[in-house]
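Hey team,

Filing this mostly as a record. A colleague (T.K.) asked me to run one chain through the structure pipeline before their review meeting, and I want the input and output archived in the tracker in case anyone asks later how it was produced. No errors, nothing strange. Just documentation.

Input sequence:
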Amino acid sequence: MADTQYITKNRLSQEVNKARVWVAIIGAPIAGFLMYKLPNFWWIVGLIYLFSIIGAASTRRSGARGELKTLQLLEKLPDSYILFNQVDVPNPRAKRGFTELDLIVVGPNGVFVVEVKNNNSKVTGDEQSPNWIAHKVGRKGGRYTAKVRNPIKQLKKQIHVLAEHLKKNRASIWIDGVVFFSHRSARVKLSSPPSVPVLERKGLVEYILNYQPKRAPSNVEKVVQQLIELKQMTS
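Output structure:
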């Protein structure tokens, strides 16, 4: 079983709970005021308020589930692999001053950044587009589409930021990347073969185990130490 001592409580789940609290704190007085002012439409205001609580931060909740599923898969790796989740890497070009990486796997055959998506639909696109298209079916059978950020571009940005940070701290190493669609209903169809692996539902552990680096990775211990320090900075 992989080393999971650096896995911390999912930040997305915590944000969902905070969002619900804020909706309750701020939304209740507003709903009460509107119901007082619009007594004939109290039921409409009540329904809107109820749905706002139920739907608070639904995207974050889905993301948290996807990351949890992926972690459960990665835990099956041998104990020579170390897992890290939600690592904030300093990035002065980012608005928040850092770039968040979903999952990082460090093993004897290299370092892997895993970008997790939990879309429950068919997703189409190409590597160069800023967005991909999710083709969804509503509860009543209606079909619609929604834009999703291109995960390959996200992944490559994350790899670049991490590589720069490690190089700055004398822990340079080749970093591989994987886009992983974790939902059981996910289907991905790209217009051309991607430059990084894009996997659906399975095959992630096998890919990492079978990965053959061009040369044996060095600085693995330094990389692990740098990642530990990054986790400590945000804990």
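Quick notes for T.K.: The longest strand covers residues 98-107. Residues 3-7+78-234 form one domain.
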